[in-house]
Amino acid sequence: MTISDRIFEKLRQLNMSQKTFSEETGISPSTISEWKSKRTNPTSEKIMIICKVLDVTPEWLLSGIENTGTRGNNASWYVIDKDTEMGNVIKSYHGMDERQRQRLLGYIEAMMGGE
């Protein structure tokens, strides 16, 4: 199954029209139709918005495999939407100097009970 096959299968499961999908992702209807008719896949810059709208992981969209249970390796990274509260925290953290970062991490550790 290709990426586009998984997209259209998920749209079917969600009972979401291509028009609604287009509106929610900002991807043109003609591009979405092209994926279906020519069996092409979306470009890499579209993957994250597609995942957000369809509520799927990039791993599932790209491979069809969902990392569940205790088997396999857990991802050593997170995918965070920059327009969320967590995205703002990360943006702020990146704007700090090393001293500020260490101080913040100390506060977090103290709040978590020294875990």
Number of domains: 2
Structural class call reads mainly alpha
Instruction: Estimate the mean pLDDT confidence.
Output: 86
**Secondary structure tally: strands:** 0
CATH class of the largest domain: Mainly Alpha
Distance between the termini: 43 Å
- Uncertain runs are none
Listing every helix as H and every strand as E from the N terminus to the C terminus, the arrangement reads HHHHHHH
CATH-derived architecture of the largest domain = Orthogonal Bundle
Give me the CATH superfamily of the largest domain: lambda repressor-like DNA-binding domains
Write down the overall geometry: elongated
Radius of gyration: 19 Å
- The total of helices stands at 7
Q: Approximately how much helix is present in the residues?
A: 55-70%
Main β sheet profile: none
Stated plainly, the CATH topology of the largest domain is called 434 Repressor (Amino-terminal Domain)
Strand percentage, roughly?
under 5%
Write the layout of secondary structure elements.
Blueprint: H1 3-14, H2 18-25, H3 29-37, H4 47-54, H5 58-63, H6 85-94, H7 98-111
Explain what you see:
The protein has 115 residues and is an all-alpha fold. The protein has 2 domains: 3-63, 434 Repressor (Amino-terminal Domain); 77-115, no CATH class. The protein is 58% helix and 0% strand. It is elongated. The relative contact order is 0.09. The mean pLDDT is 86.
Quick synopsis:
By secondary structure, this protein is mostly helical.
Features:
115 residues, mainly alpha, 434 Repressor (Amino-terminal Domain), 2 domains, 7 helices, 58% helix, 0% strand, elongated
